[in-house]
Amino acid sequence: MRWGMVINLAKCTRCHGCVAACRIEHFLPLHLTWPRLIAWETDAGKKLEVSTYPVRCNHCKDAPCVKVCPTGATQQREDGLVWIDQNKCAGCRYCVVACPYQNRTFLSKDKDPGYFPGYSLTGFEKKGKKLYPHQAGTTEKCNFCMERIDAGLANGLKPGIDREATPACVNTCQAGALTFGDLDDPESEVSKLIREKDGFQLHPEYGTDPSIYYIDGKLCGCVSNKAPLEATTGSHIQHLSTIEDRAKEIFGAGVGGK
Amino acid sequence: MQPTRQWMVTHKWMVEPMQQTEWIERRGVMVWLAEVFTSLGAGLYLVSLFLNSWWGALIGWLIICLLKLPLHIIYLGKPLRFWRLMPPFTNAWRTSWYPRGVFFTVLFTSFAFVQLVTTYLINNELVLGSALSSVVAADVVFKILAGITAVLTAMYGGFMMSYCKSVPFWNTGLVPIVFIITGIADGLALIMAVGMGTGGIDITAVESASRFLLVINAILIASLLLGASYQSSTAQLSVKELVVGRVAVAFWLGIVTLGIIIPLLVSIVSLFAEEASTNLLIFAIASHTLGAFALKYSILKVGIHRPIVPKVSAY
Amino acid sequence: MGERKVIKSTCKSCHGGCGVKVTVEDGTIVNIEGNPDSLTRGTMCAKGLSSIQHIDNPYRLKYPLKRVGERGEGKWKKISWDEALDTIEKKMKEAMEKYGPWSIAVSQGTGRGYNRYTHRFARSIGTANVITPGYVCHSPRLGLYGLVTGYGRLYCDYHGWGGEFPKTHIMWAKQLEISSADSEMCYWYINSLDYAKNLIIIDPRATAYTSRATLWLQPRPGSDCALALGMMNVIINEGIYDKEFVEKWTYGFDELKERVKPYTPEKVAEITWVPKEKIIEAARLWAIDTPGCIQVGSSLERQANCGHTLRAIICLMGLAGNIERPGSMISWVLPKTGLVEDFYLEIPLTDEMKKHIIGGEKFKLGAARTCNPDMIIKTIAQSGESPIKVWFSVGGQQIVHMANTKEVFAAMKKVDFIAHCDQFMGPMAEMSDIVLPAAHWLEIDDIYDMHPRFMIEAHNKAVEPIGEAKSDVWIFNELGKRVAPKYWFKDVEACLDYQLRKGGITWKEFSQRLVSGCWGKDQVYYKYKTDYWRKGGGFPSPTGKFEFASKALEALGYDPLPQFREPGESPYSTPDLHKEYPLVLTSGYRAPFYFLSQYRNIPWLRSFMEYPILQINPETAKKLGIEDGDWVWVESPRGRIRQKVRCFPGIDRRVVMATANCFYPEEPPQSFHGLFISNPNVLTDNGHQDPMYGSPDLTCLLCKVYKCSKEDLKENVFKTQEYGTPFTKVLPIPNE
Ligand SMILES: Nc1nc2c(c(=O)[nH]1)N[C@H]1C(S)=C(S)[C@@H](COP(=O)(O)OP(=O)(O)OC[C@H]3O[C@@H](n4cnc5c(=O)[nH]c(N)nc54)[C@H](O)[C@@H]3O)O[C@H]1N2
Ligand SMILES: Nc1nc2c(c(=O)[nH]1)N[C@H]1C(S)=C(S)[C@@H](COP(=O)(O)OP(=O)(O)OC[C@H]3O[C@@H](n4cnc5c(=O)[nH]c(N)nc54)[C@H](O)[C@@H]3O)O[C@H]1N2
Ligand code: SF4
Ligand code: SF4
Ligand code: SF4
Ligand code: SF4
Ligand code: SF4
Ligand SMILES: [Mo]
Prior knowledge:
The structure holds three protein chains of three kinds. By secondary structure, chain A is α+β, with helices and mostly antiparallel strands. Helix content of chain A is 30%, strand content 16%. Chain A has a single domain, classed as 2-Layer Sandwich (Alpha-Beta Plaits), CATH 3.30.70. In chain A, β4 and β5 form a beta hairpin. The relative contact order of chain A is 0.19. Chain B has nine helices and three strands. By secondary structure, chain C is of the alpha/beta class. Chain C contains 26 helices and 27 strands. In chain C, the strands form seven sheets. Chain C has a seven-stranded mixed β-sheet. In chain C, strands 22-26-23-25-24-27 form a six-stranded mixed beta barrel. In chain C, strands 11-10-9-13 form a four-stranded parallel β-sheet, with helices on one face. Chains in contact: A-B, A-C, B-C. The interface between A and C is large, with 73 and 91 residues. Bound molecules: ligand MGD (2 copies), iron/sulfur cluster (5 copies) and molybdenum atom. The site of one iron/sulfur cluster has 13 residues of chain A, from α1 and α6.
C-alpha cells in the first residue's frame, strides 16, 4: 500500500478551494499553507500555456527530508506517508532548506500576526487551538490528511473511494482535478490514470520518487478516452438518478416533477 | 531571485528560482554567525595544535563552546529540544550530517577540554614523575582525537549543505573542502593575533602557510563558481548573484578583497620587508576575519532553490 | 470535546447553490465541507469554505446604526431595530405622501437569493424604480431569450439527463469554471467536458482552460456581435445549418441570411482581430458537431451593443438547432414549488408605476419593469432637487459597481435619505443615514433559488446571527409589514411557507428535505415538438416560432435583426481618442476568491491576491517601461486609477484587463474605503448605452497605462496603508 495523488493539470481552475479546505481541515494559521498553487504562464515558442500546478508534500518514497531530519521527527510510514511528529521537531529547518520541492514551512511566531491584529481571534481559530494545536517553532507540511486516512481505515473505509477517508482537498475540488488512492494497487483510480494518461512526477531526476503524479492533455474527454458516448452517458445518468431516487426516498415522491 | 514568502502569492512562488531564507534571513543570521564561528574556532584550534599554542587552542575551544554552540541552540525553533539532535537520543546520524556534526562538535569540545588540561599540566610542569608519561600519552591521544573532531566540526556544515539537492549551488563536494580550507586559513589569521599577544608563534612561518592557503582558497572558490556555472542554470544564477548581483558587494569586497587580496598583499609585503609592522598585521587579520564573515554570508545568501515546475527545469 | 451537530445547508457565498455540511461545536463552526448528497457532489470553492472567517469576522456589522456625522465622516450611533425601522418607515411614508411612491428607489446588488424580496417589497409599496445590476448582468440575456423563443430562460444542458451531453461547448466571454453558479455550476460544466468533443473559448484573454481547449478565439473587446454574424455567414453559406429545425421551427431566416451577407470572414477578421480561419473553424465545429451549448458571459452584457450581440448569439444557437435537444440549450421544467419569481410577479405593476419608471421611455426592453440605474444617476445629477427621496439599498455597492463613479458619488450625495443593509461597512454604508446589519447565510433560514430554476434549496441556520444581525427576509418582512402590510406575513416562517405552498410542503419539511427540484427523467426535452407550450407544437413566441427576426422589436422601433455597432470608444469609432488612449480596456475578470467587491476583508481570501490586478501583455509592458508587480495608473477621459500590474502573455498586446468591483475595506471611511483608488468604474462612461437595455460600455473602452511614481503611492488615500503588509493596521470596528 502506498498512498498517492494524481493531479490533472488540464482541469485545475486555480480556484484555491484545495487551499481553503486544508486550512479548515487542519486549522492552519494564516501564514501557513500546506498545499500551494503555482501559476505557470508562458508563450515561449509562440505557444501559449496557462497552467496551474497544485503542489503539496510529495510524500517522496526516497525523501530527503526524512534523511536530513536530525531528530527523527520527520518519519515515513509503511504506507509511504511522510509525517512530522510535532512533539519531536526541534525547529532546525534543515528539512525546510533541503526539500527539493519546497513544501515545508517553519511556523514561527513572528510570521503569524493573526488574522485581525488588535482584535480577538475568530471562534473557529479559538476552537482550533484546542482541536488541532500547532506548535510555533516547529516545521509543518501536508500530511495527506493522515488523520482522515487512519480513522477511515479503522472504520473499514477506503481512502480515495470513501469520502470520509479521503483528503479534504480532493473532496472539495470542483474541477475534479485531484484523485487519491493506492499507487501499489494497479486497479486503483490513481494507477489507472497514471498508466492511461502518462502520469509524470516533478523533478524525477532528483531520484526522490514522489507519490504525486501529474497528468495533462486536452480537456474534452470523449476524444481522448474514446469511451462510447452511450456507455458513459448511461453510467452518468445512473449516478444522477441515484441522487434522484435518494431524493425521492427522502423527500417523498412529488416534490420533483412538473 | 525572489525571497521566499509564506504569504500565499500564487504567481510568485517557486515559478522562478527562489532564494532560501531560513538560514540567512531574520533569525537565520544566527546560522550564518554560528557557521563563521565554527570555522574560526575549529580552524584556530587546529592551527594551534600544530603550532603548539595552548592559548590559541583555548580561544578556539571557547569560540566553539561559547559562540558556535549557543548560537545554534537559540536558533532552534524549540531550543529546549536541542538534546534531540544528539546521539544517542536520535538515530538520525545514520542518514543525516546534522546530528553527526552535532556529535562531532560535542566530542570535540570534550576531547579538546581534556587536551587543554593535559597540555596545561605539562606546560606548567604540574605533573611530575611517573604520572607525567601517562599524561603525555593522554595528551597525544587527545590531541589526535580533538584534531580529528575539529576537522569534522569545521567540515560538517559543508556536508550538510552539499547534501541539499534543493540548492544546486551547494550540491557539490567542493563545499566541505572549501569549508575546511577556509577554516584553516581563518585559524592561521587568528593565531597571528594570538601570537602577537602571547608571543611564541613564528609569524613568518604562519605567513607563508597562510599565503599558500589563501592561494588554494582562491583557486577553490574559483572552481566552485566555475563548476556551478556549468552545473545548472539555478547554480549559474547563484554565481551571477555573487559576481554581479545582489551579493556582489559581499563577494568582491568581502571575500575577494578583504578575505584574500589584502591578507595576501600584506603577507607578500612582509616577505620583502623582513618583518611586517604590527599595524599592518592587525589590519590583515581583521581584514581576513571580515572576509570569513563575508564568505559564509555569501554562500548562504546565494542558496537558490530550483523552481518546482519541470518545464522550467532549464533552471 | 463539546456537543457537536452537523447541519446541512446551501452555500451562497457567490450566486450560490453548492450543498454544504457544517459542523458546529458548542455554537462555533469548526468545519465546513461540501454535502456529497447534493448536485454538486460535495465540492466547494475557496469562497464558500472561507465563510468560517466571515461569520464572526470582527468587522461584521452587529447593530443597526444611525449616522451622526457628515457622510463619510464615519461617525455612527448604535440604535435599536425599532428605531431603525420606524425611521425608515416614517421617511418612506412621508415621501409616498408628498411625492408618490416612485420617489422611493429600492436597490440591490447582484442576485444573492433575495431578489424576490427586493422586487416584492418595491411592488408592494407601489414603486418600480428598482435599481439592480441586472442590465449589465443576465437580464438582457434572459429578456432576449424570451424575445426569440417566447420563453425567458435558456440554460446549458450539462447533465446528460436526456441521454446526451453537449458535443461542442462554447464559452463566450465567460469563465464558468471560476464564476460558478452564474447560470450554471462549474462542477456540472467541468464534468460534462469529459463527454465533449470540442471546447471553443471566445475571450480576449486566456482563461484557465484556453490552452487546453479545442479552439480559442481572441476577439477585440466589444466586437463579439460581428463575430457571431460572421459565424452565421459561414454556416449559412456552407449550408451546414440544421435545415429541419430552421425550416420547420424558425421565423425570419431569409432576412437573417440577407443580414449576415456583408459579414464575410475576411471582414469580420478585420473588425474582431480574430484570424479568418479560426472564425470559419469555430462556425463549422458549432454547426456540425451538435448538440452543443453556448455559455454566455455577462461581459457581453456590459457593453452598449449588448442587445444585438446577444440576439446574434441566440440566432447562432437556433441555426445549429441547438435548442431543446438533449445536450443543447434548454429551458428547464420547474420544480413543483413553481417559479420563485412568482413571489413578486403576483403583485402586478400598475400603469402609474410603469409611467414613473426612470429610463422607461428610452430603454424599452431594459427599463420596462425596473428602472435604468444610469438614468437614475443622471436624473438626480441633473435635477436641482433629487427626484429620489428615499433610497433603500440591500446588499449591492452601487457606488462601486456603476459606470462613472464620480458622477454616481455626486448624485448619491444629493439623495436626502438612504438606508443600506449589509454585513460590513463599505462605500454604500458610509453614504447612508441608517445601516442595517444583515445576517450571513450560515445564520439564516431561507429558500435559495437556483439560477437554472430547475430546483430550489434550503439555507438552514447553523449558528445564531452575530450581534443583532437579521436575515434579509426578516428585514423585508418587518419593513413590509409597516409600509405595505397587505402583502407581508406574520413572520418569516409564514413567508417561507407561502413561497412553498405550490409544492404542498411547509418550510419545516423543506428545511429537512433541503431541495425541491425537477431533474433526471422528469425533465422534458423538445418541448416545441409537443403540446407543452402550444397545442400542436411550437414556441410560445408571437409567431409560434424561434424568431430570427422579431416583429415585436420592430414595433418598439428597434432593428428586428441583429446588427453590429462599434463600442462608444474604440480604435475605429473614435480614432482621435485612440491616439491619446492607445489601449483597449476591458474590466471584469472575476477572481475565483472574490465575489465582486466582497471578501477583501477575509484574510484567507485576501491572501491569494492582495491588490486588484491589471493584466497586460509583457511586450506592451516592456514598451511602457513597466514590470510585473509595478503599480500603474490606468487613465481614461473620465479619470485615473491605480492597479498592480501582472504581465500576462495570454492577453492581446493592444488590450488590458482591469480587475473590477474593488474598494479597500481597510481604508478609512473618509476615503469611502478607498473607493477611487483602484475601481475601474472611475474610468467607465455612462453616456453611451445600449438602445434596448441601457447597458453602458464597462468592458470595452480606451485607456492609457503608465507607471506610478513613488509619490503617487503615498498620496492621501494610501497614507494609512503600508504596502505589502495588509491587516497590520487596526481599523476601528463600528460601534464597539
Ligand atoms: N468567483 C466569482 N464568481 C462570480 C463573481 C465574482 O465576482 N467572483 N461574480 C458573479 C457575477 S455578478 C457575474 S455577472 C458573473 C460573471 O461571470 P463571467 O461572465 O464569467 O464574467 P467575467 O469573469 O467578468 O468575464 C468573463 C470573461 O469575459 C472576457 N471578456 C471581457 N470583455 C470581453 C469581450 O468584449 N468579449 C469577449 N468575448 N469576452 C470578453 C474576460 O476576459 C473574461 O475572461 O460571475 C458571477 N460569479
Ligand atoms: N467595471 C465593471 N463594473 C461592473 C462589473 C464589471 O465586470 N466591470 N460587473 C457588474 C456586475 S455583473 C454586477 S452583478 C455588479 C455587482 O455589483 P454588486 O452586486 O453591487 O456587488 P458588490 O458591489 O460586491 O456589493 C455587494 C454588497 O452586498 C453585501 N452583501 C453580501 N451578501 C449579502 C447579504 O446576504 N445580504 C445583504 N444585505 N448584503 C450582502 C456585501 O457585503 C457587499 O457590500 O457590478 C457591475 N459592475
Ligand atoms: S481545488 Fe481543484 S481546481 Fe481548485 S485550485 Fe485546487 S486543484 Fe485546482
Ligand atoms: S516533498 Fe519535500 S517534504 Fe515532502 S516528502 Fe518529499 S522531500 Fe519530504
Ligand atoms: S525542523 Fe524539525 S522536522 Fe525539520 S529537520 Fe529539523 S527537527 Fe526535523
Ligand atoms: S492531502 Fe490533506 S493535508 Fe495534504 S494538502 Fe490536501 S487537505 Fe491538506
Ligand atoms: S461556488 Fe459558490 S455556492 Fe459553491 S462553494 Fe463556492 S461560493 Fe459557495
Ligand atoms: Mo453580475
